[in-house]
Write a structure and sequence with these properties.
Blueprint: E1 3-6, E2 13-14, E3 17-18, H1 22-31, E4 35-40, H2 47-56, E5 66-68, H3 69-80, E6 87-90, H4 93-101, E7 115-118, H5 126-137, E8 141-144, E9 150-153, E10 156-159, H6 161-172, E11 178-179, H7 185-196, E12 203-207, H8 210-220, E13 223-227, E14 246-248
Parallel strand pairs: 1-4, 1-12, 4-5, 6-7, 7-8, 8-11, 12-13, 13-14
Antiparallel strand pairs: 2-3, 9-10
Helix pairs in contact: 3-4, 5-6
Length: 257
């Protein structure tokens, strides 16, 4: 038995279009007894949203088989926050919902916050940047859900949470050191130890990004698999910092491993 950890955007689907052959490949893995988990950095949808989307795309999945960066963020905050602490969050509704479900105390004003959570926000503006900056000046710890600069969509890419990170780092002059999504050890350890409950060497990390999917797989001791259906181009593979163990045209070829 092996464990297969799949990224979503650019790996399983692009926007609302399934990548051909993926449902059949996933079904074959499960039928032969392998464990399958879906892992996404995207913070603008909930885990329930992903379950519904995958089922609509003919992939059978349970809620516990879907992990996103919002969920890992809430788990992390539960461990590090004191009773008097609170979080000022920048992001969209699914991030706030996950934090509330995790009983994370939210601050109405950034000046009162002990932590700032920075997620992908398609309505990010100067006021939100200033709120995060002022919280940082007051000593708040900054946490980002994911480092992705862009997200693949039909016809190209759009800015992701990395753009929000860049704005805040430009204001503070300091890098954000705590990122809960891929390629963090926080996410890798949770999936390996709590979800799959398997040794890393028996698990494959499959995704389309070198700096998140492949880096996390390599760092955690998993077998990293790059698929060429998303962000990564052949040019990026000429001298990559994070080299995948395997390169596949698509997830539909996963059984060849």
């Amino acid at each position: 038995m092996n464990g297969y950890i799949f990224d979503l955007d650019g790996t399983i689907y692009i926007d609302n279009e399934i990548i051909p052959g993926v449902p059949e490949a996933i079904k074959s893995l499960k039928e032969r007894g392998d464990k399958v988990v879906f892992l996404t950095n995207k913070s603008i949808a909930s885990r329930k949203d992903y379950v519904e989307k995958l089922k609509a795309l003919d992939i059978e999945v349970r809620l516990e088989e879907v992990i996103n960066s919002n969920y890992i963020t809430a788990l992390y905050l539960k461990k590090v926050m004191k009773p008097e602490d609170s979080v000022y969050a920048i992001g969209e509704a699914p991030l706030f919902e996950e934090l509330r479900e995790g009983n994370i105390k939210l601050a109405d004003f950034s000046a009162k916050a002990s932590h700032v959570v920075l997620g992908w926000d398609r309505e990010f503006n100067y006021d939100k940047l200033n709120q995060a900056y002022q919280a940082w000046r007051n000593g708040a710890k900054i946490i980002a859900t994911n480092p992705d600069r862009t997200c693949p969509v039909s016809g190209g890419e759009i800015p992701d949470c990395g753009a929000m990170i860049g704005a805040l780092e430009g204001a503070t002059g300091e890098p954000i050191k705590i990122i809960t999504g891929k390629p963090s050890a926080l996410m890798a350890d949770y999936v390996l130890n709590n979800v799959l409950q398997m040794e890393a060497c028996n698990c494959f990390m499959i995704g389309d990004r070198l700096e998140t999917d492949i880096k996390m797989g390599n760092d955690a001791g998993m077998q990293s698999v790059l698929v060429m259906t998303g962000i990564t181009t052949p040019t990026m593979l000429e001298n990559p910092e994070h080299k995948p163990k395997y390169i596949l045209e698509s997830v539909r070829n996963i059984l060849s491993l």
